[in-house]
Amino acid sequence: MAFDLSAITQPKNLPLGIILYAPVGWGKTDFGLQSPLNVFLPTEEGWGNRDLTGINSFPLITNYQEMNEAVDSLLDEDHQFRTVVIDTLSNLQKSILNEALKLHNLTAKVTARNADEVMFRAIYKQAANLWHPLLAKLDRLRKEKRMMVILLAHVGIISVDQPDVDKYDRFCIDVDKDAQPILEKWADIILFGTRNSRFRKVGQGIMETRKGIAGEQEDPRIVRTEERVTHVAKNRERLPYEIFMEDGKQFQTIFNLIYPPKKEKDVKESE
What we know:
Elements: E1 17-21, H1 28-33, E2 38-42, H2 64-76, E3 83-87, H3 89-103, H4 115-118, H5 121-129, H6 131-144, E4 148-153, E5 155-160, E6 168-173, H7 180-186, E7 189-195, E8 199-202, E9 209-212, E10 221-224, E11 234-235, E12 242-244, H8 250-258, H9 264-270
Parallel strand pairs: 1-4, 1-7, 2-3, 3-4
Antiparallel strand pairs: 5-6, 7-10, 7-11, 8-9, 10-12
Helix pairs in contact: 2-6, 3-5
């Protein structure tokens, strides 16, 4: 294809690709539910006892083929959805590992308990490559359907061994280590959900205990948006490093920081 100056156009920003990883019970699913016009692609049973009225979700997705079929339907069919939520990457990783086994004509079923025992590193690398076509389809949803993509995950821990420092552990997305850099590169924003526990020491020696600092909310939920030695994160939107999450408004808190709502004065001036 030959280019000339007539090929120059104004680029368009894509809807965001967000990864949120957090401990069990932090509120990951609620974060996804608060996103606009969302549809869920669930890989695990995580609804709990919440009211399911008005929730849009595919049936439980149990393998890699079903995930691709669900994404294909969003690409090929007309719909009103503006956000797709995969809940969770951690369980999707197991389906991808099973798909890699099939490609190598192996039949052992991968579970969280036996995965490291039955798989060779070559199989894990093959599994990591299966993320690329799926993420490419999710990018098509962002470009062609103008859909935001939210990927939810549990928290993992990875050991980092660098030649210039002592070995250390850090919190990360709960997927295999070969998939980590692929997902990190894909995402616009990676949020590490945790709790901001603050304590003071009381007593000394064997009588020493820790008590919550008076006047502070106990274990408030927060997200961290920038990478540190302790955790993986990513921030292309100039978000503050640490953001406190108000119950019921987790998604809106992040969204308002990225796209500040117009003040009434600004609206009148634009008119």
